Amino acid sequence: MKNHRSTLLARREFLKFLAASPYVAAAGGIGAFVRLPGASAQTPEVINDPASALNVLDFEEAAHRKVHPGHWAYMASGVDDDATLRANREIFKHVQLRPRRLHDATLVDTRVELFGTVYDRPIFLCPTGGERGFYMDGEVSVARAARGRGTLQCLSTMTSTPIEDVNKALGRPVWYQLYAPSKWEACEQLLRRVQAAGSTVVLLTVDNITGRNSETYMRTRPKDLTQCASCHHGSGQPPGPVGERAMFKGIDMTGVRAPNPAMDWEFVDQLRKFWRGKLVIKGIDTHEDARLAIEHGFDGILVSNHGGRATETLRSTLEALPEVVGEVGNRVPVFVDGGFRRGTDIFKALALGAKAVGVGRPFLWGLGAFGQAGVDRVIEILQGELKLVMGNCGTRTVADINRSYIATPDWKI
User: Fold this and answer.
1) Nearest CA to 142 among 304, 345, 360, 385?
2) How far, CA to CA in Å, does 53 sit from each of 61, 288, 374?
3) What is the DSSP letter of 306?
4) Domains with residue ranges and CATH for the chain
5) CA distance 277 to 282
6) Greater confidence, 206 or 4?
7) Between the CA of residue 17 and those of 76, 195, 219, what are the distances in Å?
8) What does the angle CA 92 – CA 97 – CA 100 come to, to the nearest 5 degrees?
9) Helix residue ranges, H only, 104-214
10) Residue of 361, 355, 287 lying closest to 320 (CA atoms)
11) Closest Cα to residue 389, out of 114, 150, 108?
12) What's the mean pLDDT in 327-350?
């Protein structure tokens, strides 16, 4: 009863913060953003099982009712006024499609080959930290769903589950997202562990090396005193020393920061010399940096703004994608994430030159609502929607999708 009362108090404090949020006001007020905890879970607006979901957005409120308020605020919020977070979604309303008719769509093939491995769809699960904060088995449940659906999973440096356990559950190596430690010896130890676990692709995150101004999250965190043993150390606060994270166990992280605020292209050269596998740079959104990334030996580029959680640029990743693709051409694959919720969203990115598209919050909604089954259904829905739009646009394979299917003039993208 005490824990239940604490949770209700925490949710009430969270609702107070939401009422004052400019993001919530822009979305139509608190009623449009969150339903009160006392509302019936049997209402048509809230699904009770994964099969009831018609689209991935159906999982959002179902997860909201189950996930710890502090964890929810951390995941759902952006930075500053949350404008870039919204921009990632709003851009899709302004990019039109040009379907081609009367092409045999009996068999639509969504398979794609990424660095020599074939996946069932051009969709990957983005690296998100602390997934046990959304469901008890966290990253392992995500891995099992990804395995069953033949889907690429990326694992965060801030994972709450060791890479060895995740790779075992996935049945193949994850792509590992790297927040580079400020001490090279620690970075080298971390990468040796990743290599020993069998992973051969590393995503170096470069768009959030100095921290972020997470006002929405910070307004609620000090009021959220509910303890969460799976990922906190009392008072609802995140782990202090980075060395306590699952991937840093056994590494001396005394005085070490991760990510490294001093990271530059010279560090990249050192990393490239050490890491013999594939290296993808995550967080590029300009043609200048795309060109430098290729010059410094990256094997791929991930256009990303950290889900609107790094810098308030007001520029969506879909807008940045053509600029990067225009510079890169076919020299290395370009990936993108940020705001993708529909199969049509994914199709638009593929038409603009992305090799594959990442989703983050949607699978966390599925995880928070129903665990592995929720993640599985999120992947299934996105796959189904993508196949529909591919068939109706006259594209039977991912390779058939190109810029000719976009009606929007270049200057508007």
Assistant:
1) 360
2) 11, 42, 9
3) G
4) 1-35 (no CATH), 53-407 (3.20.20.70)
5) 16
6) 206
7) 13, 43, 6
8) 160
9) 138-149, 163-170, 184-196
10) 287
11) 108
12) 98
Active-site residue list: 306
Tens of pLDDT, residue by residue over 106-134, are: 999 999 999 999 999 999 999 999 999 99
The answer to whether the beta carbons of residues 191 and 216 sit under 8 Å apart is no
How deeply is 25 buried, as exposed, middle or buried, from its count of CB atoms within 10 A (0-12, 13-18, 19+)? middle
**Size of the chain, expressed as the number of residues it contains:** 413
Are 62 and 49 in contact, with CB atoms under 8 Å apart? no
Distance CA 83, CA 91 (A): 12
Checking DSSP bridges between strand 123-125 and strand 356-359, what pairing results, if any? parallel
Instruction: Give the whole-angstrom CA distance, residue 247 versus residue 250.
Output: 9
**Token pair 């889907």 in the structure block, residue:** 151
- pTM for this prediction: 0.86
Give the tokens for residue 272.
């490239």
Q: Which residues pair with 406 in a beta bridge?
A: 97
Q: Which residues pair with 205 in a beta bridge?
A: 282
Pairing type for strands 117-119 and 112-114 reads antiparallel
